[in-house]
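Hey, can you fold this one?
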Amino acid sequence: MNTPHPALQKALSERPVSERSDCAVVALALVTDVPYLVAHQALALSGRKPRSRTSPDVFETALGALGFEAVAMGRYRTFLRVERVLCTWPEPILVWGHNHVAALLDGRLLEDGEFSPLRRVLGVYRIRRIGAPGISPAGRTRRRVEAREVAA
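Sure. Predicted structure:
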């Protein structure tokens, strides 16, 4: 049986009982490594209404307020495909789906509630601090090739 990720357990333990439709709050807390209540307040100040869905624009504003930015990655069809392809990616990844958002950390797709691996993906974003150097997919491939050449 899979054990829950410690970061997900922490975020869910801080969640008020009355909260619902807060997958964006949980995902924001996970990818930015801030407490649930800080993520909740950042989204509220950015325009999220209590106990309602969060739009991508509001989420992006909250990310910026916390000092992070979202960088779009390639296109993927399902949550399962994202988890399989990007399981070794070192930075936190945000997966925006139809009526849902989740975080990919340590090679695991973390989310609260029901998980449908075949849920349609609308966007995949790597999350990094504003101004921090990032890893490009091309650079990542180049380093793998160089590492193989050194090993040979």
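The first strand starts at residue 68 and ends at 72. Let me know if you want another pass with a different chain boundary.
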